């Protein structure tokens, strides 16, 4: 599958795959789950179990997802937040900003 990813998106895949699972927080490397086929920026970092697991996985019975009360958008938000935290030096530990 990796060979079908255009080279311009590969750095993003590498960063997402290095993250912990967005659902259960299992340490990386993770799979990159596509919310939509061929949409390379809406990919979610998932462990094998939360991804393809027959019982817990999104492509299975989604038990872990239900337990955590999460859907794909929730998991994508976790992935994006972790990517941005990496980039900006973990703003959660810093001062709150008023908008
Ligand atoms: Zn997981
Ligand atoms: Zn998937």
How would a crystallographer describe the biggest sheet?
2 strands, antiparallel
Report the average pLDDT across residues: 91
Bound molecules: zinc ion
Q: Which CATH architecture?
A: 2-Layer Sandwich
Number of domain modules: 1
Oligomer designation: single chain
Low-confidence stretches: none
Shape: globular
Name the structural class: mainly alpha
Number of helix segments? 4
Q: If strands are numbered along the chain, what order do they take across the biggest sheet?
A: 1-2
Rg from Cα: 14 Å
CATH class: Alpha Beta
| Topology pattern, helix = H, strand = E | HEEHHH
How many β-strands, per DSSP?
A: 2
Characterization of the model:
With 99 residues, the chain is mostly helical. The chain has a single domain (7-84), classed as Herpes Virus-1. The protein has helices spanning 10-17, 48-52, 63-67, 72-88; strands at residues 31-34, 43-46. The radius of gyration is 14 Å and the shape is globular. It binds zinc ion (2 copies). Residues 33-34, 51, 58-59 line the site of one zinc ion. One zinc ion binds at residues 21, 23-24, 26, 46-47, 49-50.
What keyword list fits this structure?
99 residues, Herpes Virus-1, two-stranded antiparallel sheet, 2 strands, binds zinc ion
List the helices and strands and how they pair.
Blueprint: H1 10-17, E1 31-34, E2 43-46, H2 48-52, H3 63-67, H4 72-88
Antiparallel strand pairs: 1-2
One zinc ion is lined by residues 21, 23-24, 26, 46-47, 49-50.
